[in-house]
Amino acid sequence: MTETATPAERLAVGAPHRELLEQVLDTWSMQVLEHLCEAPARFNDLRRAIPAVTAKSLTATLRRLERNGIVGRAVISTRPVAVEYAITPLGKTLREPVDALLAWTSAHLAEVEAARDRFDDA
């Protein structure tokens, strides 16, 4: 798909743009990125920081983010061997757009909740 593709084409099912957005903006990815933007962390540190995530989901999320170049994985030679995850320079570029989305939700949450109430009451 080229850069001249329309927004509708970029968001079509199976489009690479859509796939990437789905992988980066899912619930667990957002929470993992929030923690890794603060500091590198080991797997169990992330599990404790995000108690609702299962080990299987966290593993899949970290692998997906690593595959996309957003998170890096470093093996630390300790006994036992440990693995530490850190945000990559590419991953750091997500901070501004994600913060913008979160700011939008904060600014418009009351309006959205009112719309939901109107819809549910109809």
TrEMBL record:
Residues 15-113 form the HTH hxlR-type domain. Pfam families: HxlR. GO terms for molecular function: DNA binding. InterPro entries: HTH_HxlR (IPR002577), WH-like_DNA-bd_sf (IPR036388), WH_DNA-bd_sf (IPR036390). The keyword DNA-binding applies. Keywords: DNA-binding, Transcription, Transcription regulation. It comes from the Bacteria. This is Helix-turn-helix transcriptional regulator. It comes from Cellulomonas hominis.
